[in-house]
Specification:
The protein is mainly alpha-helical. Helices cover 51% and strands 8% of the residues. The chain is globular and about 75 Å long. It binds adenosine-5'-triphosphate and magnesium ion.
């Protein structure tokens, strides 16, 4: 272990890795691993709030780790592990819950969104999600957390919980800072309305085969005010045009063509699909070389490394609170 500052982030196993995951957070997983001691975990505990049987997503878990490596997360420089391989994170969650006022968690907007998305399964885990997330981060004493903008409220809550813990028991944890990609907003889904989300059917993949990506892009909802190609478009309110800003240096040129009705929505989508397929070709190539055996080894090594760090933190935590040390149990 080094004395470099630490970076930590996690991702749920609720579907395939998508453009929002990559542009919002993944790009920074890769960038930060040179400078920081980096940790990335596949959040299987968090996934249980949506899918109660972990066996059902064990295959997706492999896929997710492969995606992470494909986009450039390097197991030689980043500790990659499965969240539930570190059961002490559950102990820390319980202890953090004792210093977290109920009203702080009630304020979190994502809870209300999830209630709307899965009204038949509003479980306590869903409500407690930000407390578990705080434990994930601070159990490795994360200094920085690369996430998308949709996670900003959670991170703010983590900082408050950390401060409250430190005030109550003495300084144990650094206050983790959010790291955003300045060039990316919250990416909207192909429906043009909701945030692109693994658990909604509105994604554009990053490592998927070209034909899948093309199909997803071609399904995007475009400018709803433009019925015929001969009518001028409204790039400011069109999700496809918003994507042009992310994938084309000369996006203004295309916006202008759209305003003048010199390019149609279908044509714009097919150019965009081509561009996305090209841009992510190296990811697909890297992914094709990975085997399940390699992933098993990476996760096993990651569990050992992350487990050591978590153990060390929890020894301090129990001591700060006045609980007996593990050695005396
Ligand atoms: P789920 O539907 O299960 O919540 P998700 O697609 O929102 O899946 P998460 O696992 O919750 O993905 O988040 C992984 C990372 O991707 C987080 O850092 C999150 O902020 C980021 N992220 C997710 N969706 C977007 C988006 N549409 N735009 C920008 N960043 C995003
Ligand atoms: Mg999410």
């Amino acid at each position: 272990m080094t004395d470099r500052k630490r970076s930590l982030s996690g991702i749920r196993v609720t579907g395939r890795f998508h453009l929002g995951n990559y542009l919002g957070a993944g790009i920074n997983y890769v960038r930060l691993q040179d400078e920081y001691e980096s940790y990335i975990f596949v959040a299987d505990y968090h996934t249980l709030t949506t899918k109660p049987n972990a066996r059902e997503f064990s295959n997706d878990l492999y896929e997710m780790v492969m995606d992470l490596i494909a986009i450039g997360v390097d197991p030689g420089r980043t500790v990659i592990y499965r969240q539930s391989a570190i059961p002490k994170v559950a102990e820390l969650t319980l202890l953090l819950a004792m210093v977290t006022p109920l009203s702080w968690v009630q304020r979190v907007p994502t809870f209300k969104e999830k209630v709307r998305d899965q009204p038949d399964n509003v479980n306590l885990g869903l409500f407690e999600y930000p407390v578990l997330q705080s434990a994930d981060i601070i159990i490795v004493k994360g200094d920085v957390v690369p996430v998308g903008r949709d996670q900003a409220a959670h991170l703010e809550l983590t900082r408050e919980i950390t401060r409250r813990f430190n005030r109550t028991y003495g300084h144990v944890f650094p206050e983790p800072a959010i790291v955003l990609n300045p060039d990316a907003p919250i990416i909207k889904g192909t429906d043009g309305k909701a945030k692109m989300s693994k658990s909604l059917n509105n994604i554009i993949g990053v490592t998927d085969p070209p034909e899948v990506i093309t199909k997803q892009v071609m399904s995007m909802v475009t400018d709803t005010k433009r019925v015929y190609k001969t009518q001028p478009g409204h790039p400011r309110t069109c999700n496809v045009c918003a994507m042009y800003k992310l994938f084309f240096d000369d996006w203004e040129h295309y916006w202008e063509l759209c305003r003048r009705a010199q390019i149609g929505c279908q044509e714009k989508k097919s150019l965009l699909a081509k561009r996305i397929v090209e841009r992510f070709a190296p990811f697909r190539e890297r992914r094709a070389e990975l085997t399940r055996e390699q992933i098993d080894e990476i996760l096993a090594a990651g569990a050992v490394r992350a487990g050591e760090v978590a153990e060390k933190t929890m020894v301090e935590v129990r001591n700060a609170i006045g609980l007996p040390p593990y050695s005396q149990l």
